[in-house]
Here is the input.
Amino acid sequence: MTQDTAAPRGMQLHTKILLGLALGTAAGITANALWRGSERLEWIIGNVTDPVGQVFLRMLFMVVVPLVFTSLALGVAQLGDLTKVGRIGAKTIGFFLATTAFAAVVGLFLVNTIQPGEGLDPAIRDALMRQFGGQAAEKQAAAESGGFGVQTFVNIIPRNPVDAAAKGEMLPLIFFALIFGVALTRIPAEAARPVLMVLEGISYAVTVIIGFAMKVAPYGVAALIFGVTARFGFALLQSLGMYVVVVLCGLAFHLFVVIPLLSGALAGVRPLDFLRRTRTLMVTAFSTSSSNATLPTTIRTAQQEFGVPREIAGFVMPLGATMNMNGTALFEGITILFLAQVFGVALGLQQQLVVVVMCIITAVGAAGVPGGSIPLLVLVLEMVGVPGGGIALILGVDRILDMSRTVPNVCGDLLTSLVVARSEGSPLVPHPLDPDPTVVEPGEPPVGAEPVPLQHASHRDTETQR
Ligand code: ASP
Here is the structure.
């Protein structure tokens, strides 16, 4: 393929995206300083930057349903035998839970040590409750209507997979895709083959669409970050200064220390290499604030930058985008304890253990969309005796925290795919950086979408990478 060998033409994609992030932030902060709250600024955001950002977001969101379905069904079918699916599934979910639990414990350790809630001025607390009380009531209503119980688990099995997909309900879609993949391994090969070929074809097409989306990424990222910084500024961040600092430090520790060290120790990818190769992924997660919207980039990064075999990336990432949220668990742990401190609710060791368990469960249950964890967070607050309406305190700063926690969320998914691939004996040889998946030689599939025989796919992947 020409794109594998050609020298990079012009600026590389990740450099363009980083530039978009820097320019959008600088322009947004300047606009906030000059025109905060003015009609002119609202007009620019509403008519220029929001639409550009939405185009980018929608380009990513529109491939999520076909991507989740095809990659999971193909992943399971190509893994072939069910013991292998079970083994990889157990490793994946075990690793998800272990890293999520660790992140929640780090969050609780930080908030207990620094106690950011103790120093919050009651006047600021009351002002925030007045300003964001309305929004908090909406979140409480969403929490109550969602509920959490046996039915939550029954709902994982869809009545109608098309309806679930149309509503963006990921767990039911995942369940159906997994079952469908398993079923394909149980029918005669000649019946399975055409279905698999259709799924392969869709998967190639989706890869090309992701390539288109990434072409608009630098502009989309600039537009999204402009909207946030221009509306938001620094004022609110300052009023909740210590809380924000504790959350950001915890997330930075998990992202820049824990995850890279684990990648070095368990996947043989050097920590700095890990961070260098995930730049585009991190900026996409940060600007979209959504694990689901970032899913196409996560799969692309795993395959192209790290050489994760396609069936493992296709299996681990869609599960991870919905189930594995390290950053969210860490953020939830800190927020629950912070609000408990502000409202004078003492939480002993036993209750803090309940908090850890609930952080894990809600991080698994939260949707990978902006603010997806907030309604579940309200439920946990009420469960441990902190007023649910207290969420009003942090809603104003949640956007920036949401962007920040989404980055370790997706990097945790990527790490899991590396660890699982390595444990399955994959050599993890990356493709060159930033090949353009939309450049397809006649008769060749796009990068990251190598055709694999329907059986024993992982063996072939291993061989071609040697
Ligand atoms: N925005 C987060 C994600 O998509 C979910 C959350 O913590 O609200 O990963």
